[in-house]
Amino acid sequence: MLMTGASYLDSLKDGRTVFISGERVRDVTTHKAFRNSARSMAKLYDALHDPATSDMMLTTSPEGIRTHRYFTSSYSSADLFKARDALAHWARMTFGFMGRSPDYKAGFIATLGSYPEFYNPFEANAQRWYRTAAERAMFFNHVIVNPPVDRNRPVHEAEDVFVHVVRERDDGIIVRGAKMVGTSAALSNATFVAQNSAVSYEKGKGEDFALVFILPMDASGLKVMCRRSYEESAQSPFDNPLSSRFDENDSILIFDDVFVPWENVLIYRNIEKARSFYAASGFLNRYALQSTSKIAVKLDFLLGLLILGLRSNGTYDFRGVQTKVAEVAGWRNLMWSLTTAMCAEPDLGPNGTVLPRLEVAATARYFGTYLNSKIKEIFETTLGGAPIAMPSSAADLLSPEMRPLIDRFYRGSDSGAEERVKLFKLIWDAIGSEFGGRHELYEYNYAGNNEQVRLDLLGHSAKQGIVDHSLDMVRACMSDYDLSGWTNPAWINPSA
User: Fold this and answer.
1) Is 469:364 a contact under the CB 8 Å cutoff?
2) Is the separation of the CB atoms in 133 and 71 below 8 Å?
């Protein structure tokens, strides 16, 4: 039942309601705004069945399900390392530019199987959805953020916008409102709907908003409102080699009186659980291993891209330039080291599971928020105007009149003009295009608002005893002396 690339594409032809550029999309697998990105995702599924990679990618869960390694919980450090390698392989297939691939939400899905009792009285729902998702390696998106309106008010004062239950039925509930950011929602099988932990609930009034549920993307009344497609506006693979195939289109999901069967509900009108599931489920630890592995792969790619660009300019051997390249290498090494630290000394999870180490996950979450902008600055300050001083499109190189001029004036220090232009078109798509700009904004915010990311890092460090340990060290130092001199006999010099 594990999806192949072909069966994944077939699963998207379900009549879902997707809007973009003023039209309703009839088939996302053939529409020019989504078709290449859909096929990029399909290639990930094919890797699960490729004899060269299937053993690395797959494992058998305690429930007897043959599935992707991150669709089941880990029970040892070795399990986590194997899962990390599977995550990295999928990331390499998109050069780190499709972070919300199916393994992202697998970080949560696995916990439905290993810790279903958290969702009592909907424990059976968690178990059933785990089996359903793991057997197919289903592609979930998630929407846990309210649209950016009225955030200075408690949620119940924005019921015209925020998702909430409006009516109960014997067979389920009716929900209304909007959620974001539905990255790759148009290309996924189901959406996971919840509130993030920073939401302001008021007891006695906010319960209708304290919901967690799963919904197939073809649910009646569910509407996907997409941003502009970078894939659709790509000129050619030569001009837009990344955005033409790796555009994770972002969207707002609108729930227009959508029916949610009881069997799809995980948390209902329970403020405490709705606030705590993010950390209590283990997803906070697990998603960080997937995202950090993706960032590490992306930094591998960007390091190589920067070096090739500098060699083409003839500036790679400059001393000052190499110090900047070293920064990228250092960030790359740091992120890979953090994935190792998460796996090598894991935290104990529920029911015999292990989780990526929390304070390391929080550290990776923090650094990941601004790495993209930091690396982009290095590209911009070392490559200068080269990324924008390029012919307008591949058509220029095919012009008999223009090609001789391009061959002469656009050649690289180590290559011909065509290879150099091809390289810098790739560089521009990665860091300068609208696609590249979206990645910078996304890395800043996808892990949560910047303040919360930092506050969580401090909170997790305190929870793990790191803050107390640091304070004890300072107190020990200060206890060695007072106004009269040394108070610790070990520091008193008898000959003084």
Assistant:
1) no
2) yes
pLDDT at 197 > cutoff 70: no
| CA pair distance 395, 119, nearest whole angstrom | 57
Q: CA 421, CA 142: separation in Å to the nearest integer?
A: 38
For the domain bounded by 283-463, which CATH number is listed?
Answer: 1.20.140.10
The confidence score (pLDDT) of residue 198 equals: 62
Location of structure tokens 């979206």: 438
Cα torsion through 394, 399, 401, 404, rounded to 10: 50
CATH of 5-280, one of 3.40.50.2000, 3.30.450.20, 3.40.50.1820, 2.40.110.10: 2.40.110.10
Q: How many CB atoms lie within 10 A of CB 206?
A: 21
Is the pTM of the predicted complex or chain greater than 0.85?
yes
How far is residue 72 CA from its own chain's centroid?
18
Angle at 300 between CA 297 and CA 94, to 5 degrees: 45
Give the residue among 415, 422, 416, 413 at the shortest CA–CA distance from 391: 422
Q: Are strands 66-68 and 58-60 parallel, antiparallel or unpaired?
A: antiparallel
Q: Which residue do the tokens 């909007």 mark?
A: 178
Residue 69, amino acid? R
Question: Token pair 């990390």 is at which residue?
Answer: 84
pLDDT in tens, 216-238: 999 999 999 999 999 999 999 99
Decide if pLDDT at 157 tops 80.
no
- The residues that bridge with 265 in the sheet, in sequence order, are 213
* Cβ partners under 8 Å of residue 390, min gap 6: 410, 421, 424, 425, 428
In the chain, what are the domain boundaries?
Answer: 5-280, 283-463
Angle between helices 123-136 and 102-114 (to 10 degrees): 140
